[in-house]
From TrEMBL, chain A:
It is found in: Cell membrane. The keyword Transport applies. GO terms for cellular component: plasma membrane. This is Molybdenum transport system permease. It comes from Actinophytocola xinjiangensis.
Automatic annotation (TrEMBL), chain B:
GO terms for biological process: molybdate ion transport. Residues 284-348 form the Mop domain. This is ABC transporter ATP-binding protein. InterPro entries: AAA+_ATPase, ABC_SmlMolc_Importer, ABC_transporter-like_ATP-bd, ABC_transporter-like_CS, Mo/tungstate-bd_C_term_dom, Mop_domain, P-loop_NTPase, Transp-assoc_OB_typ1. Keywords: ATP-binding, Molybdenum, Nucleotide-binding, Transport. It holds the Pfam family TOBE. It comes from the Bacteria. Gene3D superfamilies: 2.40.50.100, P-loop containing nucleotide triphosphate hydrolases. PROSITE patterns: ABC_TRANSPORTER_1 (PS00211), ABC_TRANSPORTER_2 (PS50893), MOP (PS51866). Coiled coil: none annotated. Residues 1-236 form the ABC transporter domain. One of its GO terms (molecular function) is ATP hydrolysis activity.
Length: 269, 349
């Protein structure tokens, strides 16, 4: 028996597993391939640099980045609290934090409207005292995206924190470092891979956010129409444009995935 | 100017540690005991990483821990700790590791790095200022950890099994070097170890704990001569001498010993009491270390009898009860002690 035949015998997959596996693979890849096949390649450049696409793309990137910033500022301390502080009912807190992860985003949008809307529990006072109204504004987009994306960051950072050896923090304390100094100089660098992965995931989630955004922030071109909303709109009026916008989002996703894989996921440092 | 620790720590598991531990300035106290005896717990209470349940810890007139009202956080205690696996910060270079404590306490960056460099030079790491901990050998990492702990001029230096992570060959040289740094350090030192050799070479006082309680304390030589429990007898049952070597001959304060490996300069020599044989007459033939001794005392332990012998040098021997009977061992009896040169460990001091 030749070496190749032997290897083939050893490596042979059971049909029961191989067939559904291949169908599953096709199911995931074919729609994306279809997107590329149906793309209006001839007018692609023109569409890609049209004002509508540029506007939506810019708004999306700006809002997703701002939302990610909000998530970092609030989410990293929250992750630290969940991982390190001696809180009663920490399990319940952790479960609550993950709710937006499984919640249909539309429900999140409705919830945000009820709280931050002009007649909302908090929104009412914001409007009355400061004249601030969040729904249907660009700030509303950022809030909706942050609400949906923050759990990704918190879960990722908390996992990294729990994996980090707390004895390094003790060592820092014996060297005279306050908890804040220790957090900045010891804890954060040691969870850098988890933090970066969480940030990228969070940004990607915010970029693709649709349900909560359209519910809470509405659909106003140049103000709240982000890429996913623009895709949905264009599908009705100009399917070609919808495909172009989708390809841009697909490309961004692939870039995110590749940067994650190469730098942090496959080779944890 | 003394560190006083009279502490009781009760853990949820039911474990209870009771310790009364005064340390004078410049003194090195070794806390010795089997695993689970409470050594690390004691070290953690002194560092402030664990509060005491009762009692108090104070340095000079500063109280660090006295329930229920006083507890000084670890970052506010002038302590330096060398951890068992060093816990060097892997994302920082050697200099940044050593400068960490100074920076954390508010020393400006430039000055902190200057002082860190001086410390690294002192511990012999002039070549490794910018090396990351991962790229250092075990012995080098230990020295960075020591420099990091000493850089903030702590009043209390805590060493948690500082040599346990090293292999046997590095251990000897690092131990000798650590001994020199400890001798130069004016503060209070507590060394936690389960290795009697480390304790006897590095410490002025041994405190031996078993099951959370002190079973014996005193200068190493005294503890070795008069062990109070089987554990202590087994633990510190070591004939340890300081001497000066010239080839294979080591001249001790009293007497000489012949060793297997030639060495030069000041050395420690050690051998276990079980390596000593006792004979009624000087034996003929091979043993090169053979000298007259007088029985000074006999102590029965679980399976062996420890015999204290006066002579040049004085020596401890572990023999079987059968030998006691054969030789009619009794205080005042004159015998001849022999030790094979290959049984003697030599290391620079």
């Amino acid at each position: 028996m030749t070496g190749r035949a032997r290897a083939a015998r050893r490596g042979r997959l059971p049909v029961v597993l191989a067939v559904p596996a291949l169908i599953g693979l096709a199911f995931l890849i074919v729609p994306l391939a279809g997107l590329l096949v149906r793309a209006p390649w001839t007018s692609l450049g023109e569409q890609l640099f049209s004002e509508a696409v540029g506007q939506a793309l810019l708004l999306s990137v700006v809002c997703a980045s701002l939302a990610t910033l909000v998530c970092l500022v609030l989410g990293v301390p929250l992750a630290w609290l969940l991982a390190r502080a001696n809180l009663p009912g920490r399990g319940v807190l952790r479960a609550l934090v993950t709710v937006p992860l499984v919640l249909p985003p539309v429900v999140g949008g409705v919830a945000l409207l009820l709280v931050l809307g002009r007649r909302g529990i908090i929104g009412e006072h914001l409007d009355a005292w400061f004249g601030i109204s969040l729904p249907f504004t660009t700030a509303g987009v950022v809030i909706a995206e942050a609400f949906v994306a923050m759990p990704f960051l918190v879960i990722s950072v908390e996992g990294a924190l729990r994996g980090a050896d707390p004895r390094f923090e003790e060592a820092a304390a014996t060297l005279g470092a306050s908890r804040w100094y220790t957090f900045r100089r010891v804890t954060l660098p040691s969870i850098a891979p988890g933090l970066v992965a969480g940030t990228v995931l969070c940004w990607a989630r915010a970029l693709g956010e649709f349900g909560a955004t359209i519910t809470f922030a509405g659909n106003f071109p140049g103000k709240t129409t982000t890429m996913p909303l623009a895709v949905y709109l264009a599908l009705e009026t100009d399917p070609g444009a919808a495909i172009v916008l989708s390809i841009v989002l697909l490309l961004l996703s692939v870039v995110v995935l590749v940067s994650l894989r190469d730098r942090w996921i496959s080779t944890p440092s | 100017m003394t560190l006083r620790a009279e502490l009781t720590v009760t853990r949820r598991s039911g474990f209870r540690l009771e310790l009364d531990l005064p340390i004078a300035p410049g003194q090195v106290v070794a806390l010795l005991g089997p695993n689970g005896a409470g050594k690390t717990t004691a070290l953690r209470t002194l560092a402030g990483l664990l509060p005491v349940t009762e009692g108090s810890i104070s340095l000079d007139d500063q109280v660090w821990d006295r329930p229920p009202s006083v507890f000084v956080a670890p970052e506010d205690r002038p302590v330096g700790v060398v951890f068992q696996d060093y816990l060097l910060f892997n994302h920082l270079s050697a200099v940044e590791n050593v400068a960490f404590g100074l920076r954390a306490r508010g020393t400006p960056r430039h000055e902190a790095r200057e002082r860190a460099r001086t410390w690294l030079d002192t511990v012999g790491l002039r070549e490794h200022h910018d090396t990351r901990p991962r790229r250092l050998s075990g012995g080098q990492a230990q020295r960075v950890a020591l420099a990091r702990a000493l850089a903030t001029d702590p009043g209390l230096l805590l060493l948690d099994e500082p040599l346990a992570a090293l292999d046997a060959s590095t251990r000897m040289s690092v131990r000798a070097e650590l001994g020199r740094h400890l001798a130069a350090y004016p503060g209070h030192t507590l060394l936690v170890t389960h290795d009697p050799l480390d304790a006897m070479v590095l410490a002025d006082t041994l405190v031996i704990i078993e099951g959370g309680r002190i079973v014996q304390q005193g200068p190493p030589a005294l503890v070795a001569r008069q062990p109070r429990t089987d554990y202590v007898a087994h633990l510190v049952g070591l004939n340890l001498y300081r001497g000066s070597a010239e080839g294979t001959v080591v001249t001790l304060d009293s007497g000489t010993l012949t060793v297997a490996e030639p060495v030069t300069g000041p050395v420690h020599v050690a051998f276990p009491p079980a390596a000593v044989s006792l004979h009624p007459e000087p034996p003929h033939g091979s043993p090169r270390n053979s000298w007259p001794v007088t029985v000074a005392g006999i102590e029965q332990h679980a399976h062996t009898v420890r015999v204290r012998l006066d002579g040049a040098p004085p020596v401890l021997a572990d023999v079987t009860p059968a030998t006691v009977a054969d030789l009619h061992l009794a205080p005042g009896l004159r015998l001849c002690a022999t030790v094979k040169a290959t049984e003697i460990t030599t290391y620079p001091s």
